[in-house]
Amino acid sequence: MKVINKKNEFVFFAFRNKKVIIGIVVILIFLLFALVGPNFTENDPFDFAYPSGPSKPSPDYWLGTTMFGQDVYSQFTNGLRATFLVGALGGGLATLIGIIIGFTGGYRGGIIDEILNILTNIVLVLPGFAVLLIIAAYLDVRSLISESIFIGLTAWPWAARAIRAQTFSLKSREFIDLAKLSGMKAWKIIIGEIAPNMLSYLVMTFILQFGGAILIAATLDFIGLGPTEGISLGLMMQGAVSWGALQLGVWWWFVPPGLAITAIVSALYLMNIGLDEIFNPKLREM
Amino acid sequence: MSLSVENLTVYYQTLQGPVRALENACFSLADGEIMGLAGESGCGKTTLGLSLIYLSERMRYIQGKVVLSGTDIPIWDHTKMDTYRYKYISIIPQYAMSAMNPTRKIGKMVHDLISARCIDFEKIKPEFLRRLGLVKLSEDILSMYPIELSGGMKQRMVMVISSLLNPELLIADEITSALDVSTQKAVAEMLVEFRNRKFLNSMIVITHDISVLYQIADSILVMYAGQLSEKGPKEEIIENPLHPYTKLLISSLPKIGMKINEKRLSGIPGKPPLLLNPPEGCRFRDRCPVGFEKCKEVPPFIRIKDNHYVACWKVSKKDV
Amino acid sequence: MKKYFTRKIFVYAITFFVAVTIDWLIPRFMPGDPISNMLSRAALNADGYEMMYGYFSKLFGLDLPVWRQYLNFWANLFKGDLGISLYLFPQPVMKVIWRSVPYDLFLLIPSILLSWIAGNRFGAFAARSKWLDNTVSPIGYILSATPYLWLGIILAWFFGIVLDIFPIAGAYSYSLAPDLSWIFVFSLVEHWFLPFASLFIVNFGGWAIGMRNMIIYELEADYSHYLEVLGMPRSLIRRYAFKNAVLPQITGLALQLGVIVAGALSTEVVFSYPGIGSLLLNAIQNQDYFLIQGCFLFIIIGVLIANFAIDVIYVIVDPRTRKGMTGETE
Lengths: 286, 320, 330
Description:
The complex is a heterotrimer.
Chain A: H1 6-16, H2 18-36, H3 72-108, H4 110-125, H5 128-137, H6 144-171, H7 174-181, H8 186-225, H9 233-242, H10 251-279
Helix pairs in contact in A: 2-3, 2-10, 3-4, 3-6, 3-8, 3-9, 3-10, 4-6, 5-6, 6-8, 7-8, 8-9, 8-10, 9-10
Chain B: E1 3-14, E2 17-29, E3 34-38, H1 45-51, E4 59-68, E5 71-72, H2 78-84, E6 89-92, H3 106-116, H4 121-134, H5 151-163, E7 169-173, H6 181-196, E8 202-206, H7 210-216, E9 219-224, E10 227-233, H8 234-239, H9 244-251, E11 302-305, E12 308-310
Parallel strand pairs in B: 3-8, 3-9, 6-7, 7-8
Antiparallel strand pairs in B: 1-2, 1-4, 4-5, 9-10, 10-12, 11-12
Chain C: H1 2-25, H2 34-39, H3 46-59, H4 66-79, H5 93-126, H6 130-145, H7 148-162, H8 182-219, H9 222-229, H10 234-270, H11 276-285, H12 289-317, H13 319-322
């Protein structure tokens, strides 16, 4: 058997790794739902489609209707869109800030690292959720975008910590010393030598932030501090609980949204484990 | 005879197939013999040493017989081996620097180790303290944590711990590699002292640094690419090697006083073969200056002289 | 060790300062005017309105220059005076919050401690065999991926409505008044159980997974290999691995406090449980400046104290911190 080179090695293991496959498939299914799902119904999420109020899932209304006769399926698929958006934007922003702060601190070291580290620790200790609460409460109009931005601005310490640790360990490896000795410019070292080795780590960090952002957004939405317009999975659950869906047994209104979030975040965690196995040869199953 | 190894063959399991790391090792050790095990990285010396005490999950036992002081050692049986480990066969591992639990005081840790083998620690303690003194470690060490010790101190501590139960066979795996030269000397001499005082019977010292072996070994076993090349008394190996590989190895060593314009350092051109699909026969033949047709057959490890064995078609009793 | 604590206290001090400043600052950006909000509830004519407005402005110190208000805020903080609640006028904020604190502690402390202990034990246990690991790990991951609020909803619906075993609102039955009778205690526990369970279950999953990963890491460390190679019994190796794996779990607890606070908040909303979370929400909905500030402050102080307590525990438990290393995973 030929000796496989590094890139192909990753692809080879990626396709064999069950966890990554399952994770990706689950996410793709939900993503598909989010993208084309809404097109399968003429009802908008807030249309009072069914005059008599709540009804069980039926061929007409695949996920039933809410207390007010709104199409749950429509709410669900549109809500999925919002969820993915928040995850991508909020998670992406948090990862980006984390990269900048974590990497700069880790690579430069010294006083810069001290300052950035203290900054990270402060934002870390501060219960981000409480801060988000206060900020969200004082905004009259809240959009999905602003929610994502604020989540990104409070969730980055986790990413920064992880990336800083990884940068430290890479920085002291011999191949970096070699590059420096051969007179390579700093930015070239960063892009050429360090970044490829960190790429796997960055992807995994992003996946975790993505999941985290979804959870935070759902909680914010649920307690009433979500976007003032539009629908999201958290808002669905808020609506359900506020309007007595529990007491009246309108389970199709609150079970699907939470189930979807659980499924998506679980799939993300699964993918992460799988990716760890791929990038960390020691963990690969024999 | 202390140790006798016959046809020991151990492979590593990988997704791409078995790596033939150790092939038909046959040798023996006399009582009290210190044998150096030398060779390039990846030649199989750690595999050999490790397989005598602990076959890890990735290692696959193919065949071989190991007899220690007349007892058959079931190295393929993981559970049965527990009775022999530490008491009869012990090892100072390559990672001795990090071999101790970082969050446990050293004294407590040793107590745990001894008690776990159903021995009363108090009975052994006086001897333990004596040995600590022998390696120039103070008793205070017992109430310290590993992090408070220097590299050399940790090495010596692990030496004492590993040999505490007076094993028949002690395997010392690269114990001087991470140390500075003066500590190397001290540690090497302590090993010999342990043998002289009968804290252990025979010893296998694994290293890629032949100069250490020159100081302390009685005999040297040279390996190449999973096969045994030559074993003999240390003076003969160093001064009059018979196997082509050993010759090249010895001649590539710098000698004190030698200057580069007098004699350039020579290496051995080429690289060792990958052991996933090693070449048939003698695995050195591609780099060997005297290789010929017959080398496609594996040369047997035969006795050329007293206690001197060579695996080479070109070397026979007639040459001696 | 001194270095360890000085750094921590330094960070906490700055955090406290930043938090208090945010706390004081953000409400100032609030659209609308708290006093006019409050007054709009009372039917007043124009003159009366103006007089009341002036009265309240003075009372709340809103007529002072901004920097003065800021300094007064700090001064009052140290006196323990958090102002007067607007929507629960004229009750002082401190009193209102103080009433909710016991419910939070009653909910949070058992769920945090029990889930941590049980989760760690279970995670270590799962690492024992491959079979166990393969069945337990997925469950752990799914649990930790579940939003607290949704688990709360499902538990409330299933056990509260469908099976009708537990009540799903309030801290105790509305028909009872707090006293030390068994009936009251029973009602208290009855109402406490489901919110406790939803916090416990999600956290448990997280700790179990974390511990399992840490144990595997420790079992592959050099010192574990050394024990194996010397033929030590499995129980000793596992014991050492567990003790070492617990250490990062302690730091992990401190790091998770923010997440746990968020979870507790949404759980309180689901179950109408009268903790600080519910209080904060009501305050926000009613634009009660001072109550919001007070709640936020309480949460911050609570988290900082908990962090500090955990830091102290860590130093006691990890000998390396006492010898100069920071020990914890940075």
